[in-house]
Description:
This protein is an alpha/beta fold. It has a single domain (38-256), classed as 3-Layer(aba) Sandwich (Rossmann fold), CATH 3.40.50. It has helices at residues 38-51, 70-73, 86-96, 108-114, 116-124, 165-168, 174-179, 195-211, 228-231, 235-249, and strands at 58-62, 77-80, 101-107, 130-135, 184-191, 218-224, 253-256. The chain has a 7-stranded mixed sheet, with helices on both faces. Residues 1-7 have low confidence and may be disordered.
Amino acid sequence: MSEKLYLEEPEVELEEVYCRPTEALYDIPFHYCPGCGHSVVHRLLMEVVEELGIQEETIGVAPVGCSVFAYHYMNVDMQEAAHGRASAVATGIKRVLPDKYVFTYQGDGDLAAIGTAETIHTVNRGENILMVFINNGIYGMTGGQMAPTTLPGQVTSTSPYGRDVSMVGAPLKMTELIANLPGAYYVTRQSVHNPNAVRKLKKALTKSFQYQKLKKGTCFVEVVSNCPSGWKMTPVESIKYIEEYMFPLYPVGDIKVPKE
């Protein structure tokens, strides 16, 4: 019998690659619709909190809408607010506890509709908080109605023939409006539609929390996101919609940055 030769393969140390969990998020599955940007922003916010070592010093405020679920997932002190009143509640918390890191987490139907007055006056006063603004151009939780940020011609449950600007006006570009207020310290618009955008948003959130130490005013971070269920699209289709239709009206990038 011929002798068979078997070559011994060298031992190779394999590096385990995985997504490291963060203790600033509760260890429970997100319930958001497939493709929704909320879960990504939740993760980024809490990654930043953990990396800055401020988990025990952070207080978040979430109002009504899909944002209301934030306190189920974010492992920091959270306070629920009435619809549109998150920035007012955050103002009270920050003034009573000025050394805490305070942020709001709000959708466009909340911040740019029923909460418009609170938003404008909070920033105009230069309250030393971070406001995170999720803009998906629609009321995501309550039935897909037209929001102040809905695009011209965009079909929603209350604009079945598309948004008619001549009847209801043009979309509100809240971030540009906010940037003109003297109390705004850092204002930016970012997205989570691809990995590069996710990295840029994380940097913006990191800077925003760091700026709170300076006590110079309000940091405002808009996130252009998608709502596959409300838009009646697949997650992939919704990403293409963001790129083709949302970004021309809501271009990403810094709008107001601190002077060096």
